Amino acid sequence: MSIDFFSRLPMHGETRFLPGDDRSAADDSRYIDYLAESAKTIERAGFGGVLMVNAPIADEPWMVCSLLARETQHLRFVTAFQPFQVSPWTAVQMTATYQRATGNRMIWNIINGGSEIVQQQVGDFTPHDERYDRAMEFMDMARGFWTGPGFQYEGKYFRANGGGLAGPLAQAEMPLICTAGSSEAARELGAKHADYYLMRAERPHEMAELIADVRQRARAYGREHAIRFGMSVDVITRETDEAARAEANRIFTEAVARGAAKAGATSAGRRSARKLGFEHEFKREEERERSYDEFFIYPNVWSGIGYFGIPPGCALVGSYEDVVARIREYHDVGIDLFFLAGYPHLQEVDRIGTHILPYFSAERAPAGIQT
């Protein structure tokens, strides 16, 4: 089974989710230049693509990936959006245009909101499971439009009567599709439509159970061997385990000093998405002082950043060899697309590219290519 590595652009800025680390902060006038520098650094470091988070506090990913396409040569952009934000035809037409202009470098990440509160703040009052029903129809429509003119569809949320890509746009490749979410409805969406079903890091056996469930669901659509799995996790790695743990401790100590634990609790209270196993163990109601090393949920897997509400919730912490070993362990349970990043962003993606990715050179294959 092949493996590939993407990273993540700091769409929120570096300090929005990480109090205590302002070493790479960029003011508003330099922000797009900072994102461009980040994208070019990610590409030079050997990553195949970059995840672009879509959140109300962040810049809009479609706009940013359009700006950054000319700053990079081969980097692929995983653009997150919700089906209520754009019509299926507009999404297809925009993406076909982007694919033609960039050599097919866009990937869709279909998201459906992890907080009812935030969802309503941005104007979507559709209940949780119905959002996934809508996303299912959205993807039916998108795939149909990509087959060419004459597409017919009659759904609850969308209809089409004879439309489809034609002319030069029809030559563009349909993007790879990523989905996420661990609810029953989210798993079903991924089973039917995802090329990559994305997850946040948990203990390997917990991820293996989720992978098995989604793969079983995909069998009903004839996609058991087509669907693949990705994981987003941060990385804190140094030459020695002791040095990596010291950095994790620094991040934790400074974040506690600035009150980030309270901010993390507030953030968790707004979420309606399923809590991961380790999140149930935080027991936020306890007021006792905690040590950073209490948050290791598995060898080299640290949930300390998740305690502060920092996505993606976990980091691999350890020496270069230890981090490589954990990646291989997750790969063995079925993960073959890893989204790796860290704080501060520029320095850490360069470190990962230099000291982690070379271990996997013989196994690398671009995302979407089965080997």
TrEMBL record:
Residues 20-336 form the Luciferase-like domain. One of its GO terms (biological process) is alkanesulfonate catabolic process. InterPro entries: Luciferase-like_dom (IPR011251), Luciferase-like_sf (IPR036661), SsuD_RutA_monooxygenase (IPR050172). GO terms for molecular function: alkanesulfonate monooxygenase activity. Keywords: Flavoprotein, FMN, Monooxygenase, Oxidoreductase. The keyword Oxidoreductase applies. This is Alkanesulfonate monooxygenase. The lineage of its organism: Bacteria, Pseudomonadati, Pseudomonadota, Betaproteobacteria, Burkholderiales.
